[in-house]
Amino acid sequence: MPGIAVLKKKLNAVVGFSNLPNQVHRKSVKKGFHFTIMIVGESGLGKSTLINTLFNAPIAPTRDNAAAASRDAPAGQDPSKTVEINSFTSDIEENGVKLKLTVIDTPGFGDFINNQDAHKPILKSIEERYEQYLDQESRVNRKNMTDNRVHACIYFIAPTGHSLKQLDVQFMKELGSKVNLIPVIAKSDILTEQEVADFKDRVREFFLVDIKANNIQIYYPHAHENDDPETVQEIKEIIARIPFAIVGSTQTFEHPAGSGIHVRGRKYPWGLIEVDNESHCDFVTLRHMLIRGHMEELKEHTTDILYESHRSVKLGEGFGAPTANPAKFEEEKRAHELKMAKMEAEMKAVFQQKVAEKEKKLKQSEEELYARHKEMKQQLEQQRLDLEERKKRLLGGGSPARGGAGTPTQKPKAGLFK
Asked: Which of 8, 177, 367, 412 places its Cα 20 to 30 Å from the Cα of 352?
């Protein structure tokens, strides 16, 4: 089919559609924004601290805050090493712009002797959120849809200085195609500048050389054809810093001493590591990509690429496409049958309730009609009796009967003429 020619026309006067971005801005500010971020990594790598540093607010509980929970936990159970998925939702506001932020924490990941299946609860949680959104899309009323899909996953690499662990490779291989994966080197301040550079080179080499063999997908921001040269250069700088060597801290220190200027950082006997100093770590670059520059792009990539891939597979299975795992197919079939049985039971219960309500209403109407009929019948009977009584009175007070046997004669009254 030949392409349709598109003609460019020049307007003779201002029409007004150049104001569309302002309309979208007003609508977006009024509606607010939402963002879901997942943090994954071994315990003690500063996951919660990084989230609190990113948004400059106590959003995720740190290990110090979880100490009370450890004391209250049952004997033999350590809540800091659980495989459960914890989520925290906060409503934050900046300059009149509202953001509903959901943070999904994965405490205990990689803390066991055998971590072969450590990624499965996380993968299950991500897919369940896709399923929930797909279920909402399938409803008749889609007015109040809630988007709980994970838009970004920050994966914390332990600062060993050597290479990636098998746990890191397995996790990124399994989840790279399901979520926007952003690798970071945690607590990079324990490494020297040269060690950080060498570690980054090894990780990049793994991503670039072995990416086909390991099928690992990492999120990289993309430049668009309409982007200005400054934006393109910023994107190149962001890509050059992946994986991000980060330091997180919510503590502030006066630096230089006596200047009255307070900066966030970590203080050591030999000096101060500033969180917001790009020459000390990549925190500012990570924040720019994650929040300031590419948050909406992360959400679009989740919707258009990752979720659509999951949706296509599920819809294909629903229309009879062959599945590679018969056991999984049978499990999904049983789940679908249970779901349909539940829906049928609910519809039957609703139908029976409606029928009972209708019968009750009809019975009530029947009783009201019977009462009215009885009342009208009594009124008619009373009217008949009244008419009979009046008839008797009229007949009893009329002209005298003609002579006959047994009929008394009335004597004439004495009058003027005799």
From this structure: 367
